[in-house]
Design goal:
about 525 residues; alpha+beta; six-stranded mixed β-sheet; four-stranded mixed β-sheet; binds flavin-adenine dinucleotide; binds iron/sulfur cluster
Length: about 525
Amino acid sequence: MNTATTQAFIRTGADYIDSLRGRDLTVYLFGEKVTEPVDHPIIRPSINAVAATYDLAQTHPELATVISPFTGEPVSRFLSICASAQDLVNQNKMQRRLGQLTGTCFQRCVGMDAFNALYSVTFEIDEACGTVYHDRLRAFLTEMHRGNLVVGGAMTDTKGDRSLAPHQQADPDMFVRVTRRSADGIWISGAKAHQTGCLNSHWLIVMPTMRMSPEDSDYAIVGAVPVDAPGITYVYGRQSCDTRSAENGTLDAGNARYSGQEAMVILQDVFIPNRYIFMDGQTAFAGMLVERFTTYHRRSYVCKTGVGDVLIGAAAQVAEYNGTDRASHIKDKLVEMTHLNETIYGTGIASSYQGRPTRSGAYICDDMLANVCKHHVTKLPYELGRLAQDLAGGLVATMPSEIDLNHPQIGALLRKYLRGRADAPTEARLRIIRLIENMTLGRNAVGYLTESLHGAGSPQAQRVQIARAMQLEYRKRLARILAGIDEVEDSGALADELTDYFAEVFRPQEVSSRSSNGVQVAGDA
Ligand SMILES: Cc1cc2nc3c(=O)[nH]c(=O)nc-3n(C[C@H](O)[C@H](O)[C@H](O)COP(=O)(O)OP(=O)(O)OC[C@H]3O[C@@H](n4cnc5c(N)ncnc54)[C@H](O)[C@@H]3O)c2cc1C
Ligand code: SF4
């Protein structure tokens, strides 16, 4: 019996940390099996970041909880199905806040976005194919709400030769696939790469990573597995400077309390009973699932603006410690950082405000604006990082260690020469510089930079979606009308031509923004 199905309702961060103990997971890090991940000094900061989501729910329930439509009880907003544009917006507000509080990836959005995408996709598969996936998903969600559990989203396959479809690969395990079936369920094998927060979750939802053709039917699989299911091996991803978390002291880590987490998840004949299968062979819907998931997830990158708030604060603080804060170019660079950060926020939150209902009743955010948000995220945090390093000075890459700072012979000398303004303690200056290092070169640069680039799809994936949605014919028509090439009898006639993205842009706000606080999802009994 796995621990996830017997878990009592989790309320606090401390409850959550306790819930991860004793699961007997197979986890490798540096070639060794980790007996208890909760107590591992390199893993623990990532657990603390997830615990912060529970603690925020305690202190700010209006931001981080919803009333479950399935149990009638308050549960984490990370488990919510959005029933209005306001629900989507509130997810973004919670994400920015948690980014501010942790300065890293708090790991719960992939599962949240997977639930929301699956809610509408299972509904539409059932409509088309007469299957029962939607009811199974709702039963699964009810189970997750009863325990207030953490669910990870496992989409990215290892993919082998990127130019080939799953069924064309030399090794058939390059994409997760069904290897055996019985009347009770299926067995899957393969591996999921870069899985955020997988060890810190109670359950994982395995999903296909791309569009599929009928020949890929064994790969078109969506199912939920407990993290401690037999047959799963986790190999922990190294992060830049990760071993600093295992050293004595807290200064060199930069952010000693929090980090993100990614691991490779190797699945070897993992059994999924029928009740946890939400797609099996419906290849025509794999693309729909990937697109809807990425639409939700690409606007979830508003999380980076909370992290950006910390980085802007660190840059301003180091300038103050360095005695440069009144220089005009420093002020201007802080304005530039803020402008870039709010540009990300603006597009992400706009995508949520422009949410629309799907046939299932769940709301989905705007696809064009979500892709624009994520595309900004592939670039702007790098520029924010560059500006923060500019303000910090070269010490961000050359600072002596904490051990040297505390050394009986050289410590006092170092503290003398590493001082900035006379009224600022040397150690405070060094701590802020280490934080900037952590976010732009160290452990949390994984989440702030590389994850910004590749997470939810590499930059080209957003450009493809933007190209699909950009309605060039309509825009050309606007130009032809004003240039006197096309004639329209009255300007109202143009409004009748609005479809797709522009139909959403010009949809009156009161229609698109029905507030429900997650209490009702259409289709609920
Ligand atoms: C920190 C981090 C956390 C992540 N968390 C999760 C998670 O929780 N869950 C999850 O499912 N995934 C997660 N991901 C995975 C993420 O979605 C992938 O990294 C992303 O989709 C890119 O896939 P890839 O890494 O295999 O790179 P690739 O797909 O190999 O991309 C590398 C380059 O090749 C290009 N390319 C790829 N295929 C083709 C092609 N067929 N033709 C032409 N060009 C191509 C890309 O555009 C890109 O420029 C995470 C990634 C990171 C870095
Ligand atoms: S990178 Fe951001 S959106 Fe993705 S799981 Fe982490 S905090 Fe959430």
